[in-house]
């Protein structure tokens, strides 16, 4: 792995240049190390990974209906490009909750990344920072809050909380994340227990039980204080202490003030699909929501996240920020989510598939491909900035 590089110093990087780079490298006989086709990434990763890790990433809840619905929802919208609008150079930059980014894309919190590549979250942190894109670090990380911050360097970073049932441990994680430069807190609401995931169940594959994806609690002083012996000496006891602490208990709206008390930055609730929940989030003083169904990994038969987006946007009427994930694969998908009201999107599985292809370089290739595709789609649609991406740009599929 190379060392963390500072975010690009160019004010408005022309991401489409990656296309020219690839063609020019081709003249010299060098092809991309793996596919630029978002649709081919999953299969390419399948060929590199053992079934357990592959299905942990690619799998979904139940019959997979929600994951399929996520993709189908994008296909029900069509972009209507505009011509002769001088869109030769673009500026895709934006600022969300005080975090500026060169394009409205963040890497989603994806836990246990070391199951697809040993460098795991460190590689993702370096790749995201090199492009200036914010990374959202999962509580289920294979590396500690501080190690990932070091790898991320000057890159923007947010912290995702799986809300522990122990307040002392929760407060300690939040303290560490703030101290390590994570600016926004993402609180995931939809995974207070794991859904029925047949692919993982059939292989009895759950990395946490093997002590993978537990680096954050295992390095936490408040967590360690509750153990008779440290995790290095008694892994099983530590695992059995942690698993029920971060799963198994739903919380309620009246608990949100606790988070506000222990986190001085913006707070975003992830997993909101109903407009009433979005209103409650705003009423509770939250700063944003992420419209998400966890990439179809939780409630089978749930509403597609993209189908839920417009009603949430309407219910909030600009009171707080709306972000989006679940099913983003291409530049066109990003444009559609933005038109439907998202301020920025998060990308989950594609980043993990990139990671499976050699770590940091693989993540960079996937992110640069998505950014280039977005840049070209925006330009060819006749838009120069995100402000040009308005409702006019989308029509329902006939
Ligand atoms: C392997 C894997 C692990 C994930 N781990 C987490 C996690 O630790 N915390 C979380 O909030 N979401 C987690 N997610 C959900 C993602 O943050 C995101 O909501 C989802 O992947 C978006 O859908 P997409 O994969 O279609 O982009 C995970 C997703 C995957 C695929």
Provide the descriptors you would attach to this structure in a database record:
398 residues; two-stranded antiparallel ribbon; 17 helices; globular; alpha/beta; binds flavin mononucleotide; 8-stranded parallel β-sheet; disordered N terminus; single chain
Taking pLDDT < 50 over at least 5 consecutive residues as the criterion, the unreliable ranges are 3-9
Average pLDDT score: 96
Structural class by sheet pairing and helices = alpha/beta
Residues in helices, as a percent range: 40-55%
Number of strands: 12
SSE run: HHHHEEEEHEHEHEHHHHHEHEHEHEHHE
- The percent range for strand residues is 5-15%
What does this structure look like?
The chain has helices spanning 17-27, 41-48, 51-58, 65-75, 120-131, 145-152, 167-179, 198-202, 215-218, 221-225, 235-246, 256-262, 275-283, 305-316, 331-339, 349-356, 360-380; strands at 77-79, 94-96, 99-101, 105-107, 135-137, 157-161, 185-188, 267-272, 288-291, 321-324, 344-347, 394-396. The termini are far apart. The chain is α/β, with parallel strands linked by helices and 398 residues long. α5 (120-131) runs parallel beside α6 (145-152). It is 41% helix and 11% strand. α14 (305-316) links the parallel β9 and β10. The strands form 3 sheets. An 8-stranded parallel β-sheet has the order 4-11-10-9-8-7-6-5. A two-stranded antiparallel ribbon has the order 1-12. A two-stranded antiparallel ribbon has the order 2-3. Residues 56-57, 108-111, 138, 140, 160, 188, 270, 292, 294-295, 325-328, 347-349, 352 line the site of flavin mononucleotide.
């Amino acid at each position: 792995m190379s060392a963390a590089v500072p975010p690009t110093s160019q004010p408005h990087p022309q991401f489409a240049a990656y296309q020219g780079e690839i063609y020019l490298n081709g003249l010299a006989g060098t092809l991309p190390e793996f596919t630029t086709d978002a649709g081919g990434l999953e299969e390419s990763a399948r060929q590199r990974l053992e079934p357990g890790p592959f299905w942990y990433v690619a799998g979904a809840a139940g019959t997979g209906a929600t994951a399929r619905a996520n993709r189908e929802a994008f296909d029900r919208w069509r972009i209507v490009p505009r011509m002769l609008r001088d869109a030769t150079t673009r500026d895709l930059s934006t600022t969300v909750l005080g975090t500026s980014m060169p394009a409205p894309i963040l890497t989603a919190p994806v836990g246990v990344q070391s199951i697809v590549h040993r460098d795991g979250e460190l590689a993702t942190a370096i790749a995201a920072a090199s492009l200036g894109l914010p990374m959202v670090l999962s509580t289920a990380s294979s590396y500690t809050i501080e190690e990932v911050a070091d790898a991320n360097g000057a890159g923007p970073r947010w912290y995702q909380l799986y809300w522990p049932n122990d307040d002392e441990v929760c407060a300690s994680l939040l303290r560490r994340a703030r101290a390590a430069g994570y600016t926004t807190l993402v609180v995931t609401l939809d995974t207070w227990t794991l859904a029925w995931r047949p692919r993982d169940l059939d292989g009895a594959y759950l990395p946490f039980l093997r002590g993978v994806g537990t680096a954050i609690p295992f390095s936490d002083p408040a967590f360690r204080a509750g153990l008779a012996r440290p995790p290095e000496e008694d892994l099983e006891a530590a695992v059995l202490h942690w698993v029920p602490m971060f799963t198994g208990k739903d919380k309620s709206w009246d608990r949100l003030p606790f988070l506000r008390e222990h986190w001085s930055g913006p707070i975003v609730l992830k997993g909101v699909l109903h407009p009433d929940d979005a209103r409650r989030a705003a009423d509770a003083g939250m700063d944003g929501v992420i419209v998400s169904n966890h990439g179809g990994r939780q409630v089978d038969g749930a509403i597609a996240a993209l189908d839920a987006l417009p009603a949430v946007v309407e219910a909030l009427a600009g009171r707080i920020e709306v972000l989006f994930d679940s099913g983003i694969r291409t530049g066109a998908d990003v444009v559609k989510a933005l038109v439907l009201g998202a301020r920025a999107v998060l990308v989950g599985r594609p980043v993990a598939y990139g990671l499976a292809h050699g770590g940091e370089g693989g993540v960079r290739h996937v992110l640069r491909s998505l950014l280039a595709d977005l840049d070209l789609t925006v330009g060819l649609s006749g838009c120069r900035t995100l402000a040009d991406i308005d409702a006019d740009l989308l029509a329902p599929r006939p």
